[in-house]
Amino acid sequence: METDPKRCSILIREEALRLGFDDCGISAAGKLDREETFLNRWLEEGRHACMGYMERNRIKRTDPGKLVAGARSVISVLVNYYPPRFQEDPSAPVVSKYAYYPDYHGIIKSRLHLLLDYIDQHMGPVKARIFVDSAPVLERAWAARSGLGWIGKNTLLISRKCGSFVFLGEIICDLELAPGKEIPDYCGQCTRCIDACPTGALLAPRLLDASRCISYHTIENRGEIPESMHGKMQNRIFGCDICQDVCPWNRKVRPTSFPGLEPVPGLLEMTTDDWEALDETTFSNRFTGTSLERTGYRGIKRNLKLRK
Ligand code: SF4
Ligand code: SF4
To answer: Which one is catalytic: 63, 89, 120, 133?
Structure first.
């Protein structure tokens, strides 16, 4: 059994890369005090719009010890999801790139279980929990702490290696490991994401007003899309990648090679007419088990009507 924290960290990273993750970093599982202050202010100012779940579990979000008793380390993994192909019809209603795939949570979780099995076998049984895009974990903050990237002005984690089209996952565990070092912010003087946002949702660097964000309205908003957003939806029907598409760190990213990340059959070939004619049965056959299920058939129909 390996017990040296530095050696364990090296072995975990090597195994993560062998399993297909694009990067892996480690943080000490302390409280996220800086992020707690920012999150509380953001919530108090109502920038989360109607995402009530953001208000719940506030303590768990910033204290990993509330998620795993005795937590000592957070292992963050990063998966490049930049697609190998795009929607073929240039005028088709636009779907965010992350939604090209079947449910990525399960795909990434199953690989994280393999990483955890490796840790158990080589470093002794650990108390641990696995998270992928899970509300109580501030995964961008952990990834940044571990040195996987920095939080860009578009509020997303940016990796020098993979850009910002990345999924994140975590293992919070009670094993002592050697944490990585935060890296500097490489946004520099660039403001492309803020300038390109068609609705002014990026109020300032790293400050998003969800109530103005196309991504929020097309995915999370379960009610009516407010009039203030009408005419501004940029042909988007699920998510919005504009503030990522313009980012220079995404210019040279290569397509994903993560096992299991294959575009949903038929999605990229759908024309404008196909979307307009979409009925509930076709939606259910094609999109059950994908991210589009979150918005549902009615939500997609609502978004189709208001997309221009
Ligand atoms: S996702 Fe779209 S609407 Fe939201 S901040 Fe980025 S560019 Fe603006
Ligand atoms: S577009 Fe520029 S400012 Fe925005 S996240 Fe990318 S590098 Fe940073």
So the answer is: 133
Q: Which ligand is nearest to the CA of 187?
A: 2
pLDDT digits (tens, 9 = 90+) for 41-61: 877 877 777 666 677 766 777
Task: Tell me the domain boundaries of the chain.
Answer: 5-82+103-173, 192-305
Q: Which residue has the tokens 């059959």?
A: 265
Coil, strand or helix: which one is 269?
coil
- Ligand 1 in reach of 215 Cβ (< 6 A): yes
Angle of CA points 238, 240, 16, to nearest 5°: 95
Nearest 10 degrees: Cα torsion 154, 144, 80, 96? -30
User: Length of the chain, please?
Assistant: 308
| Single-letter amino acid code for the residue at 151 | I
Residue 252 CB contacts under 8 Å (≥ 6 apart), including other chains: none
Residue 224, amino acid: E
- Note the pLDDT of residue 35: 82
> Which pTM value belongs to this model?
0.94
